Amino acid sequence: MAEQFVLEIRGTTGGYADNTVLHGVDLAIPAGSWTTIIGANGAGKSTLLKLIAGIIACRSGRVIFQGTEVTRLSALERLRAGIGLVPQGRCNFPLLSVAENLLLGGYSRRLRRADLARESAAVVARFPQLRERWSVDAGNLSGGEQQMLEMAMVLMARPQLLLLDEPSLGLAPGPMQAVFETVRALTAQGITVVMVEQNARQALERCDIGVVLELGRVSLVEPANRVLEHPDIRRSFLGL
Questions:
Q1: Alpha helix (H) ranges present in 37-97?
Q2: Which of 14, 76, 224, 225 has its Cβ near the most Cβ atoms within 10 Å?
Q3: Which residues pair with 14 in a beta bridge?
Q4: In whole angstroms, what is the distance from residue 68 CA to residue 193 CA?
Q5: Are strands 34-38 and 192-196 parallel, antiparallel or unpaired?
Q6: How far, in Å, CA of 29 to CA of 180, rounded?
Q7: Please, what is the average pLDDT of the chain?
Q8: Would you write out the chain's pLDDT as a tens digit for each of its 240 residues?
Q9: Closest CA to 238 of 195, 216, 205
Q10: Are strands 217-223 and 192-196 parallel, antiparallel or unpaired?
Q11: Rounded (to 5) percent helix, strand, coil in the chain
Q12: 29 dihedral zone (left: phi>0; alpha: psi -120 to 50; beta)
């Protein structure tokens, strides 16, 4: 039986203004997997996530999601189709409570407020720490709690593909471990995850597939354990 890919990127290029960052990227992401993209600063990792999410345009090539081409769809249309992005850095509403942030996360689905409330209760069940902080303003949460809130907000849109840009950025080892455990739990529930991560070794020890991006091109795609064993990767990215 042929492997099922939730996402296929075929010969894509993209960038900002006159600066082309991605050069003919080809990548296929299996359904239900956790893929970690690593690479040096400026390799195009965040740009690739933004291109998949529709935040920046695909100048050439194709983006195919669940067998349907979405290359020309807007970011909102892709979100409604099932592609959710948690960008790098804080992206919640700090003066609103956890509960209010979650309601806003489901805005794209155009549900009635009562339905949104039920959905938010179901989503927050995946994040017990957030349930305990239900009425606390997001700006008063710890860094790890804010990261989980932002993941929960995107999950309110019911994505089948979750894109995470540096989810452990600025987190201590304990909260970082909690974020990674949450990601693994999401894949166990059938959500496909593509992550850009600075803590390459920690992510590769936990994920399924490792991708190395160099100067806007994919240079390696292997099971994560093989990427960890690759001598050039160990030297360049893992400090081993």
A1: 45-53, 75-81
A2: 14
A3: 22
A4: 18
A5: parallel
A6: 19
A7: 90
A8: 446 899 999 999 999 999 999 999 999 999 999 999 999 889 999 999 999 999 999 999 999 999 999 999 999 999 999 999 999 877 888 999 998 888 887 777 776 777 777 888 888 888 888 888 889 999 999 988 898 899 999 998 899 999 999 998 888 888 888 889 999 999 999 999 999 998 888 899 999 999 999 999 999 999 999 998 888 777 776 655
A9: 205
A10: unpaired
A11: 40, 30, 35
A12: beta
C-alpha span between 240 and 202 (Å, rounded): 13
Task: Tell me the C-alpha to C-alpha distance, in Å, between residue 163 and each of 29, 48, 97.
Answer: 12, 10, 24
Residue carrying the six token digits 């996530």: 49
- And the tokens for 110? 């155009």
pTM, rounded to two decimals? 0.92
Q: What is the DSSP letter of 82?
A: T
Burial class (CB in 10 A: 0-12, 13-18, 19+), 160: middle
Look at residues 51, 41, 10, 96 and name the one whose alpha carbon lies nearest to residue 194: 51
Residue 185 bridge partners (DSSP): none
Tokens 């803590």 correspond to 199
CB count in 10 Å sphere of residue 15? 17
Nearest in space to 204 (alpha carbons), one of 220, 226, 179: 226
Tally DSSP H helices, then E strands, for the chain.
10, 10
**In one letter, which amino acid is 80?**
R
Exposed e or buried b per residue across 124-138, where buried means at least 16 C-beta atoms within 10 angstroms of its C-beta: bebbebbeebeeebb
